[in-house]
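Customer escalation, tier 2.

The customer says the design service returned an amino acid string that "doesn't look like it belongs to this structure." They asked us to rerun it and document both sides in this ticket. The original structure tokens are below, unchanged.
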């Protein structure tokens, strides 16, 4: 790619004076400065070209080298000359001098450490309620998130379309001012621009100069299988928009699992309570119990099962998002006392009762063991009172 002649770029004669160069460059800089042509790559290229030409020709030594050897004489790769950053980078002192009155100190406003530095947007948290099945088996769900987004109307500049924020004249865009107090110089937030480094005289009507607006956005979130209460799913870059072109924050979707009618989860295990008939408990039997995936599994109840007994069904629990193994389903049986008995049923039970009573402690060892203890306790109590 051949480079254009520096004199041609600035539109001046070979014998142009320093004042001619400055005047010409000022005119081009005013026209093509990035602050006046946001997102205009052509203008930015023109601005850089003019800046480079001026940097060379304004320096008598470099101008002489250029006059003698052309671009090769001042090519940065041949050494001796280092270009300043691009239009977005730091300017030489010359440019500070030139821009001082036009842009209020372009260097401070765009350079490092200024208040216009880019800030990362805040992280957001969204509380997502899931059913136990959704948490255990995973799901994809749409969520609506209120979040600060870059304003479309002003593309985040905060200035009314067609206008541009001006660098704050008080702090020259630094956002900070130095105040001399006795021996000390103190840095303070600029009272004029409140630290933003910019003055927006014509604020964008949509975002009122904020450059960001609160908007609802709909996100499709994939929840991996096995998440539990309190787990968080991170959606990188889906948080609040950054400030001054900074990166967006992250969105954390925090999982809350709703109570289930049948199952409780503890780690990888699921628990459920299963009421059984007292005859089943006594005689034994087989029941069907549901599993979380909507199927059923048969549970053998051995004869003479006591209430509260827990039965473990292997690998019918949860595969946690963090573990490789599947937990168990633990069924706790609760023996139910029969109600609404018919006359005949009562008769049968009365008969049973008499028969069991005759058998003594053999049929109800727990009851008899307890009765013996209670008798000892009551006797001691009476002796103590004497
Ligand atoms: Zn706006
Ligand atoms: Zn200021």
């Amino acid at each position: 790619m051949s480079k254009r002649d520096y004199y041609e770029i600035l539109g001046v004669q070979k014998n142009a004076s320093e004042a001619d160069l400055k005047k010409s460059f000022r005119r081009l800089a005013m026209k093509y400065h990035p602050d006046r042509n946001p997102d205009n790559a052509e203008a930015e290229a023109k601005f850089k070209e003019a800046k480079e030409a001026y940097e060379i020709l304004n320096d008598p030594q470099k101008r002489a080298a250029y006059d003698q050897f052309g671009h090769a004489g001042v090519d940065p790769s041949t050494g001796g000359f280092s270009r300043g950053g691009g239009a977005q980078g730091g300017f030489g002192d010359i440019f500070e001098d030139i821009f001082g009155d036009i842009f209020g100190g372009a260097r401070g406003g765009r350079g490092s450490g200024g208040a216009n530095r880019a800030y990362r947007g805040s992280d957001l948290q969204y509380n997502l309620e899931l059913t136990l099945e959704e948490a255990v088996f995973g799901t994809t769900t749409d969520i609506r998130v209120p979040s600060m987004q870059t304003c479309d109307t002003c593309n985040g500049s905060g200035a009314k379309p067609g206008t541009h924020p001006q660098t704050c004249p008080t702090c020259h865009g630094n956002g900070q001012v130095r105040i001399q107090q006795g021996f000390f110089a103190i840095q303070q937030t600029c009272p004029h621009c409140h630290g933003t480094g910019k003055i927006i005289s014509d604020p964008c009507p949509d975002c009122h100069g904020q450059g960001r607006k609160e908007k609802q956005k709909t996100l499709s979130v994939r929840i991996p299988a096995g998440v539990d209460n309190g787990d968080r799913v991170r959606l990188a870059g889906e948080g609040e928009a950054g400030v001054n072109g900074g990166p967006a924050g992250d969105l954390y979707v925090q999982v809350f699992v709703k109570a289930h009618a049948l199952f409780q989860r503890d780690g990888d295990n699921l628990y459920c309570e299963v009421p059984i008939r007292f005859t089943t408990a006594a005689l034994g039997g087989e029941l069907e119990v549901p599993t979380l995936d909507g199927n059923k599994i048969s549970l053998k109840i051995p004869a003479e099962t006591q209430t509260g007994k827990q039965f473990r069904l292997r690998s019918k629990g949860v595969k946690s998002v963090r573990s490789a193994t599947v937990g168990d389903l633990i069924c706790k049986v609760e023996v139910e006392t029969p109600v609404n008995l018919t006359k005949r049923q009562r008769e049968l039970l009365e008969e049973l009762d008499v028969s069991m009573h005759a058998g003594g402690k053999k049929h109800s060892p727990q009851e008899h063991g307890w009765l013996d203890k209670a008798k000892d306790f009551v006797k001691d109590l009476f002796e103590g009172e004497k």
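Tier 2 assessment: The sequence is consistent with the input. Confidence is low (pLDDT under 50) at residues 76-114. Residues 168, 170-171, 175, 190, 192-193, 197 surround zinc ion (ligand 2) (CB under 6 Å). Sent an explanation to the customer and offered a walkthrough call.
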